[in-house]
Amino acid sequence: MLRILNGAGFRAVCSNKKLLKDARRLQSTYDVAIVGGGIVGLATARELILRHPNLSFILVEKEKELSLHQSGHNSGVIHSGIYYTPGSLKARLCVRGATLAYEYCDKKGLPYNRCGKLIVAVEQEEIPRLKALYERGLKNNVRDMTMVDAKGIREREPFCRGIMAIDSPYTGIVDWRMVALRYGQDFEEAGGRVVTGFEVNDISMATESPEGSTEGMKHPIVIRDTKGEEVRSRFVLTCGGLYSDRLSQISGCSREPRIVPFRGDYLVLKPEKHYLVKGNIYPVPDPRFPFLGVHFTPRMDGNVWLGPNAVLAFKREGYKLFDFNARDMVDALSFRGLQKLVLRNIPYGLGEMYRGINIAAQVKILQKYIPELSVSDVLRGPSGVRAQALDRAGNLVDDLFSTEESATSAVVSFTRSPPAAEGAVFCVLEPHWKPTPPAPCVARVAAAVVVLVFVWVENSTFGENGGRETAPQT
After folding, report:
1. Domain count along the chain
2. Residues in domain FAD dependent oxidoreductase (predicted)?
């Protein structure tokens, strides 16, 4: 039997973190199926059902609970949109997404803390890059951003030392898993169905109508799981996170850019040292290196995370050092894109591995920002694994990108069946969004998915099936 969540089940998830099981068997056909119960899948499902309440929706998730991976293993930051190329969709979505995230949390009574962020230059050579980043933020219309000197840094973060910094008071923190679960509750309350324990291993076009069906080929897409259960739909969106490239491949889309898992290991500040950090403290990004670097991140539960490093994970959902999966490892190491990335960054990669093992080496970098910090002030903390999209040339795909036959980042692609057998498959691959580990900025990923799905959805056959007709909302 399939595991199903009803409205009461979602309320239990949000309050008790436990799922209620429902033994009822679902109907087998739906207008729209969403594969993936992380925040991207849940946000997309929620927005689609609110826009098209007369359609039937199902969301399937391979785990027994929702949002367990990237959506539940991230630094929990609401970013303001400083880093991204001016005029890009990614930049616009980040700025708008921050506002929408705060508004949604206010509406639903979800806690957050607009604690701000400092991007701190500690060396003179970082000043030009910091000023360029500030100009980028201005072009992106980032709210309330200012430049501060050393005195201004100390006024905002008394224990932080630096020459100059960007102050972004609109940056905040939130529990993104709580947000994701609330998205799911909205989806259920609007009439959508959620099925857990449904690990998709095949998406194909049917060659004949189901036995006993009077609808013919109205629902031509067949989605099967590892236990032999199946559902049929007219449209499918796959939002598979760390497995998004594999879902893309089995649904008939291109698998590239490839998803390569990178693990980020955090340190945790001891409770008696929490006074050292008030808000987010970030380094100035160095364009020579592929990842952002260590930072200080307060959490909604009162903890303070320090880090992370960035190392290749030996398993796509491997949160521990020795977690290993042979298929995942061979898949990553045999990909030419990863080989090229590694060859270009051997010293950097070795340094990241060393700092992951040696706490003192990690603390030494953190001391550039807070000199009072010592090795005795920290403990090993949690880890996350992010789905890093890589192209064949070894470039990190962290901007919105699409081709006619595949979709990466937050852009959807679809394959259309012949007119006699209507159907569409959307393949949503998720990129790395700074900072690390995975998906701390998932709200704007979800926003990007929703906006770009609607570019096609609002002009598709959805409207012909009784859905509500509205212009895409950005």
Report:
1. 2
2. 31-392
